[in-house]
Known about the structure:
Layout: H1 2-13, H2 15-54, E1 59-63, E2 68-69, H3 71-77, E3 82-96, E4 107-113, E5 125-128, E6 135-138, H4 139-145, E7 152-157, E8 160-170, E9 190-195, H5 196-202, E10 208-209, E11 211-216, H6 222-233, E12 238-242, H7 254-285, H8 287-295, H9 300-340, H10 354-369, H11 371-378, H12 382-386, H13 397-409, H14 417-443, H15 448-460, H16 462-500, E13 505-509, H17 515-522, E14 527-533, E15 535-541, E16 546-554, H18 556-559, H19 572-581, E17 585-589, H20 590-596, E18 603-608, E19 611-621, E20 630-634, H21 635-641, E21 649-654, H22 660-670, E22 675-680, H23 681-689, H24 692-724, H25 726-734, H26 739-775, H27 786-803, H28 805-813, H29 816-821
Parallel strand pairs: 4-9, 6-8, 16-20, 17-19
Antiparallel strand pairs: 1-11, 1-12, 2-10, 3-4, 3-7, 3-11, 5-8, 7-8, 13-21, 13-22, 14-21, 15-16, 15-18, 17-20, 18-19
Helix pairs in contact: 1-9, 2-7, 2-9, 2-10, 2-24, 7-10, 7-11, 7-16, 7-24, 9-10, 9-11, 9-24, 13-14, 14-15, 14-16, 14-26, 15-26, 16-23, 16-24, 16-26, 16-27, 24-26, 24-27, 24-28, 26-27, 26-28
Amino acid sequence: xxxxxxxxxxxxxxxxxxxxxxxxxxxxxxxxxxxxxxxxxxxxxxxxxxxxxxxxxxxxxxxxxxxxxxxxxxxxxxxxxxxxxxxxxxxxxxxxxxxxxxxxxxxxxxxxxxxxxxxxxxxxxxxxxxxxxxxxxxxxxxxxxxxxxxxxxxxxxxxxxxxxxxxxxxxxxxxxxxxxxxxxxxxxxxxxxxxxxxxxxxxxxxxxxxxxxxxxxxxxxxxxxxxxxxxxxxxxxxxxxxxxxxxxxxxxxxxxxxxxxxxxxxxxxxxxxxxxxxxxxxxxxxxxxxxxxxxxxxxxxxxxxxxxxxxxxxxxxxxxxxxxxxxxxxxxxxxxxxxxxxxxxxxxxxxxxxxxxxxxxxxxxxxxxxxxxxxxxxxxxxxxxxxxxxxxxxxxxxxxxxxxxxxxxxxxxxxxxxxxxxxxxxxxxxxxxxxxxxxxxxxxxxxxxxxxxxxxxxxxxxxxxxxxxxxxxxxxxxxxxxxxxxxxxxxxxxxxxxxxxxxxxxxxxxxxxxxxxxxxxxxxxxxxxxxxxxxxxxxxxxxxxxxxxxxxxxxxxxxxxxxxxxxxxxxxxxxxxxxxxxxxxxxxxxxxxxxxxxxxxxxxxxxxxxxxxxxxxxxxxxxxxxxxxxxxxxxxxxxxxxxxxxxxxxxxxxxxxxxxxxxxxxxxxxxxxxxxxxxxxxxxxxxxxxxxxxxxxxxxxxxxxxxxxxxxxxxxxxxxxxxxxxxxxxxxxxxxxxxxxxxxxxxxxxxxxxxxxxxxxxxxxxxxxxxxxxxxxxxxxxxxxxxxxxxxxxxxxxxxxxxxxxxxxxxxxxxxxxxxxxx
Length: 823
């Protein structure tokens, strides 16, 4: 208990210093809490959405060709291994609300279910009764349509127009995820549920179903259950497919999570640096006190314990106030992240892992940061300290510069590790470079005589000042680096879509695309060419787990002029020849290749209908299809591998871009009950760019927090410098230095630290961006966002100016007689 009391007394002796140290830890803790909570919540939401979409099913029974008899459902439900099963059919309709909606905005995809109340389906009813006749729609759709449960809606169906009641309104769910606004409705169908019997009747498909989803009993053996299913389905035109939840098919957020952790953790690391600086200065100030303690019997372990108690007190205060602040920050971040995706996502914040991780990091990082100062305190030489023998400072500068230069050479290593070499090299070189910059400013007469005084003060405490300046530099560097990545991604999206969209319009249908349908489309005014292609979702296994992606069949004649993929190192003809020559060869999209983790020429195992097949990876290609999480195979080889597959997707080219919309409207009018989706290249481009501004704003907010923490570090350093020089300031005042001159010298000190940090941050950020473009295996290009560069420079200087306010006021408020009495 004594150690806690002594530690508390030591902290309260330097109230201002302790306050700013706690403030920095507090912000670091809240930042890490918000980031961990946001990432965990996003992961939970992604998994939950997949589960809701698939209905927690274990297996699907799918048609070899469009539909199969629904009597199979009754057989499946009687299987002793099956807990629950549901029949599914998706169909397209048009609706009329009696308003001024464009025909392209009135496509409705109705999913017919054999049972609305089923263990595989989770619906939270807001109003109405889902089992009533009619359709079930989600809340967001009801709000946009201005409809309530019981209202009638005019549906256009193949069997004639009908007035259909809205049976119920339910909470938004992935199964019913439609457009978030009328603008998006131009390229996305609205969603509704109804009974399977109603959908079969509306579309003249009595006795047919497209899919059966089923769940095994908990105690059932999977192998035996699948064997039983095979017996039951024998004789039907169907195949079995295991349901694997692979979030990478729709969400590829790992890199986003990594960047969030990096930037969120930066604030915590900066606060640890501030703690290190504060503690080190505190140890130096209290060397005599430590020597006396050792003289009266304190052993090194007790000295360490004393300082560690101080660190724990600071950390506990940071956690106590940081975690509540983190709750608020997490709420803002999660809203910002999910709003940027512009989807109807309902979510509950996840704190299961967040709280223990934050507490662990909030205690461990400050303790690790304190190890060196605490060790230094325990090794204080009693005799040398009490006799005030001057410390012989070892000349580390030359060694530090040499090691720093050697580490800088590591940035030319062709690996992501090169970025770490760059940062380590800059860190070691920073005091030397900062010293040279300060001398240049001094020689240039920056801020006159007061600037000269400020320069001398910085040079006397170059290590302490450099520590805080380098932190500001890293915050600015990271901001510039992240902004550059976003600018590059935005530019690459446009380039990638233009290079791999496969034409001017993409469309997909509910029924197979026949040559008759293609012939009708080809007659549309403005259409130059139309092509149908096949694709198949398959499971693929890696060392870690089983995943799922789509293999696309490629037609050489079409892709030579309208490719769905590209390779910057090879032309299309070579890629297509490569695919044609090897019957089991596939090209992987860049994201799939990265997730797979093998080398060109290695085998990849796919699983189709529970049968393993080995394919050979021929290369990696860039593509906008499925975000790069896909594979391509030559069309003839594809047909042999998947003989029952039929084309549901098509590509259209037009003579002039101005007719894209007209062709799209013609498609919608001609195939109102078959067209599932139609999208122009510009709409795809807009969709992919839509989330970028929101996510970038999120990162900018986190970086601003880091810069603010760096400003607190500069403020704390200045306060310590002022406290060290109270007597010196008193002497300056005694020889006619005015309060304004004292203020100007302290502001100059802060501004010079800000200039060094900002300048080095910008240079390091540019170097990081350049090294990243050389080493990353992506299409990232070297782009320097000028607006972010200017904003970083302004923020860096502004934050250093603000940081000088309190220390300057403190310096000029000292009474002259008291200041002169200070040691």
